[in-house]
């Protein structure tokens, strides 16, 4: 089961719609066009279009599985007394004093450029359940980091 925000769920449904109604017919058209060019045994365009079709169908099936397993979180029931999914967490690295803010989201919504980290990352796992003022010692590939929780919000 994948927990996600309603916004994240809607993005996945829209992406699936585009793949099925725009990309799928386009690849079918490319396959038909390549097939019309004759001998399929030496037709690179046909092979490429068939491979693209296979990749597209895999992506469609993966999205369908994610959507089927999705559990939309009721944001009105979220609390900020301890860190949980969909919380925005302000942190301070105790080693270098650097401050950062992350929103903990589902894997499908993660985007580091937007400050959204997956709930399955080591940092998010180390923060879950902690309260403001707590220090989380988290094992990351570069070693152990100590992060103090400065604020929890939505």
TrEMBL record:
The keyword DNA-binding applies. Residues 3-72 form the Transcription elongation factor GreA/GreB N-terminal domain. InterPro entries: GreA/GreB_C_sf (IPR036953), TF_GreA/GreB_CS (IPR018151), Tscrpt_elong_fac_GreA (IPR006359), Tscrpt_elong_fac_GreA/B (IPR028624), Tscrpt_elong_fac_GreA/B_C (IPR001437), Tscrpt_elong_fac_GreA/B_fam (IPR023459), Tscrpt_elong_fac_GreA/B_N (IPR022691), Tscrpt_elong_fac_GreA/B_N_sf (IPR036805). It holds the Pfam family GreA_GreB_N. The keyword Disulfide bond does not apply. Keywords: DNA-binding, Elongation factor, Protein biosynthesis, Transcription, Transcription regulation. Residues 80-153 form the Transcription elongation factor GreA/GreB C-terminal domain. GO terms for molecular function: DNA binding; RNA polymerase binding; translation elongation factor activity. GO terms for biological process: DNA-templated transcription elongation; regulation of DNA-templated transcription elongation. Necessary for efficient RNA polymerase transcription elongation past template-encoded arresting sites. The arresting sites in DNA have the property of trapping a certain fraction of elongating RNA polymerases that pass through, resulting in locked ternary complexes. Cleavage of the nascent transcript by cleavage factors such as GreA or GreB allows the resumption of elongation from the new 3'terminus. GreA releases sequences of 2 to 3 nucleotides. Belongs to the GreA/GreB family. This is Transcription elongation factor GreA.
């Amino acid at each position: 089961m994948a927990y996600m925000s309603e916004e994240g769920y809607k993005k996945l449904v829209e992406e699936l719609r585009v793949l099925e109604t725009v990309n799928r017919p386009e690849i079918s058209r490319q396959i038909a066009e390549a097939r019309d060019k004759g001998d399929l045994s030496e037709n690179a365009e046909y092979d490429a279009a068939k491979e693209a079709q296979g990749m597209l169908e895999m992506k469609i099936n993966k999205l369908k599985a994610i959507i089927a397993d999705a559990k939309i979180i009721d944001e009105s029931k979220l609390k900020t007394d301890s860190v949980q999914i969909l919380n925005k967490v302000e942190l301070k690295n105790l080693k270098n004093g650097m401050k950062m803010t992350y929103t903990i989201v589902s894997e499908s919504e993660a985007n580091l450029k937007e400050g959204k980290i997956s709930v399955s990352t080591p940092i998010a796992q180390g923060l879950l359940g902690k309260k403001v003022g707590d220090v989380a010692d988290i094992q990351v590939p570069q070693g152990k980091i100590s992060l103090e929780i400065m604020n929890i919000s939505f």
